[in-house]
Every structure is written in structure tokens, then in C-alpha cells.
Amino acid sequence: MKYKVIDNFLDEEYFDSLVTLFTDKEKSRDLKRRDWNPHTAWFFISSISHAAVVEDNLFYMTHTIYDDNIPLSDHFKKIWPLMSKLDVKALIRIKANLYPNTQTLHEHPMHTDYPYSHSGAILSLNTCDGYTKFKDGTKINSVANRILLFNASEEHCSTTTTNEAARFNININYIQPQDMKEQYD
Fold first, then answer.
1. For the chain, which end, N or C, has fewer CB atoms within 10 Å of the first or last residue's CB respectively?
2. Taking the CB of residue 148, how many other CB atoms lie within 10 A of it?
3. Contact 99, 105 (CB under 8 A)
4. How far, in Å, are 34, 36, 119 from residue 2 at the CA level?
5. CATH of segment(s) 3-27+36-184
6. Where do the structural domains in the chain lie, given as residue ranges?
7. 94: closest CA among 114, 133, 115, 120?
8. Reported pTM
């Protein structure tokens, strides 16, 4: 499994603005600030990783930012600097994920994001005991401002968290030139 982990991926100010966008980090600050949005809509997803059966009442919340060639959220323009830094050639999907706290850490089922060669990026918005795991057993811990770059057409899974209220991340699926080469080799 080829992957790359980069800590402190975004400059602190931009990263903090993304955290504020999806969490209540800035709740104690002046609520009149125009750039603070306490109303990110989170949507309940009853199955994780395309699982046909809902197990152990595990669920997650998602906020889809871009899918099917359409920006679906006002947050798209705020995410765009992240796309530029990743040098995305063709965008497939962007979504924010919220995995709620569970008493026991749960690994979700292994899955691929799409059945064709493409790149994936997972930006952790908070540090917690959750992680992304690859089929070979490699675990990449959730650390705030850490990005995981990988082939999202290879099996991987997510987890819940036990030591924070929730595990927050931004998941991006996109095409790079090497993805096209792998697709047609």
C-alpha cells in the first residue's frame, strides 16, 4: 500500500478556519463574527462504508460539499484553497465526516471509495484515538492538520473515537495524472 502522511499540512490560520467551519471550536468567541458558521448541516448516514447491514447501531454524519460535478454546499469556496494545495486535476467528491464517540473503538468495514483508480485525501480536523486502516494492517492515526494521501480504490476503513466527542475529517476523492496511467496500464 502506497500512501503519504503530511503533518501540519495547512497553515494554522486556514486550518483553524476549517475546524471552525465544521465544529463548535469558536463557540466561546464573539458570535457576531461573519466568518463563523455555527450551522453546518450534518446528515445522518445509517450505514458505514457501503455496508448493506447496519451493525451495532453504528452510524456517522456527513456534510457533502461536492459530488456529481456539482458544489452542494456553500462551504465549497472555503475548501477550494485545500484543492489548490493538493493540485487536484479532476474532482470527484468532497465531504466532511463526523464519527460520534463510542464507548468501544469500532473499526468500520473495509471498502473502496470508487471502483476505479483515483486518489484520496483525508484531512483530520481533530486529534483523537480514531484512525484510518489499510488492508495490510497499517493504521494512520487521526492527528489535527494531518493529511493522508492514498489510492482510495484500495481497501481501507475508518473508525469511531473513544476519547473525544467525535472524530472529524474532510475526505476528498480526486484524479491525478498517475491515476489515469494506472487505469489504462
1. C
2. 24
3. no
4. 41, 37, 11
5. 2.60.120.620
6. 3-27+36-184
7. 120
8. 0.88
